[in-house]
Amino acid sequence: MAAIISCHRYSSSSQLTSNQKFVSHILPSKCSRRQFYHNATTQQFKPLCSSRKSTPFVPVDEQRDRSSSIKKTAISIALAVGLVTGFPDLGYLGQANAAAIAPALPDVSVLISGPPIKDPGALLRYALPIDNKAIREVQKPLEDITDSLKIAGVKALDSVERNIRQASRALKQGRTLIVGGLAKSKVDDGVELLNKLELGLDEFQKIVEDRKRDAVAPKQKELLSYVGGVEEDMVDGFPYEVPEEYRNMPLLKGRATVDMKVKVKDNPSINECVFRIVLDGYNAPVTAGNFVDLVERHFYDGMEIQRADGFVVQTGDPEGPAEGFIDPSTEKTRTIPLEIMADGEKAPFYGETLEDLGLYKAQTRLPFNAFGTMAMAREEFDNNSASSQVFWLLKESELTPSNANILDGRYSVFGYVTQNEDFLADLKVGDVIESVQVVAGLDNLVNPSYKIAG
């Protein structure tokens, strides 16, 4: 039986065969199964993924100093140039590349308003269609604990204690407003979560008083899960109507959680890994619904990873000449439109990028901030050509800053990997997706085509 590995970093070297091609690290698009790419670099490991055996590891910080500083500098410069002058030439542009970058974005500096939120859980909480200041005032200091923990040693606990007291005070003062913001059908569940949150804050205070630094991060995660649950209980139904031309497609009217189990080949450090992914149908109902429908068809089960180049991990190109899902009822490739939700909008935009719409300063509700951001690949010059090919972003957001990069507003983001996302960097072409299963939220899928015979 494979042993469970701990949260250590292991090193692995990139390999390049004669069949592999250098591909631009900029834009993911539909890829052919005939093309291969070099492996991703290694990132920090997390639990829940198994190893064949216990092996020594090389500190990744040393590896980064030696092998990745040049790469990061080059990509960073290329991205900066791309924002000002258009598409940076980073090498061979093959079938797997997406659209060239349009002309320079005006007032680019205005788009960078501060440090981007990188945590997938926080991104999902802020993406909910709610407006309740009281619960946000509880959420913020709990999230700030992450920054407090950057202080060395037990000194961090003094800052953590201030965060906890601020959250406790906000909960006590704002509880009435929080309960008043719950959807009528979800009040009981929301109140139960608030009670757990209140008790948990008391327990958190005791952890800090006992100077148990190692217990802080797990407790923070637990309490933020309660906060997220309360916020989801504030959403009353689905907040808008999907356009009529897409209304009969599979739609995810809410959120769903899936587990993707991947068998890793030829890696002495990892045997298999389960990635937990939260799909956001509030902001991308067509895109997320399409994916859940394909999951229920077991479309991705047994499929290989088809691109892994250190920028993205990509899969979804089926066997045969088709580059997407062939709907048995029509015998044609099922495609979905580009779907982008911008802050301040009540519904997503369809079929056009934010740049096409002239919304250069618009902020996307689901940005490419987090390691493991999940989005749809599409053809080079067709915004509405996505079908089944998906990708996960690996680059750090310092190199692709929120809403000032070449991905936000151009590709349909519909979820984030929330557990074991760092393991994505160790996947390579040929690793096998053993299964993808919906573990929560399937009842939010409407018009499921997988239930139709044939």
The CATH topology of the largest domain turns out to be Cyclophilin
| Termini Cα gap | 40 Å
Our Rg estimate from Cα atoms comes to 22 Å
**Low-confidence blocks of residues:** 1-26, 33-47, 51-113
Helix content: 25-40%
SS-based structural class? alpha+beta
What is the count of distinct domains? Answer: 2
Write down the overall mean pLDDT. 80
Order of secondary-structure elements: EEHHHHHHHEEEHEEEEEEEEEEE
Query: Helical region count?
Result: 8
Name the CATH class of the largest domain.
Answer: Mainly Beta
Q: What general form does the structure show? A: globular
Question: In the CATH hierarchy, what is the architecture of the largest domain at level 2?
Answer: Beta Barrel
Q: Could you walk me through the main structural features you see in this protein, from its secondary elements to its overall organization?
A:
There is one protein chain. The protein is of the alpha+beta class and 454 residues long. It has helices at residues 60-85, 108-111, 120-126, 133-148, 156-180, 187-209, 216-232, 285-296; strands spanning 3-4, 49-51, 251-252, 255-263, 272-280, 307-308, 312-315, 326-327, 332-333, 339-340, 349-350, 373-376, 390-393, 413-419, 432-440, 445-446. Strands 1, 2, 4, 5, 6, 7, 12, 13, 14 and 15 form a ten-stranded antiparallel sheet that branches. Strands 3-16 form a two-stranded antiparallel ribbon. The chain has a two-stranded antiparallel ribbon with strand order 8-9. A hairpin with a 3-residue loop joins strand 6 (307-308) and strand 7. The longest helix has 26 residues, at 60-85. The chain is globular.
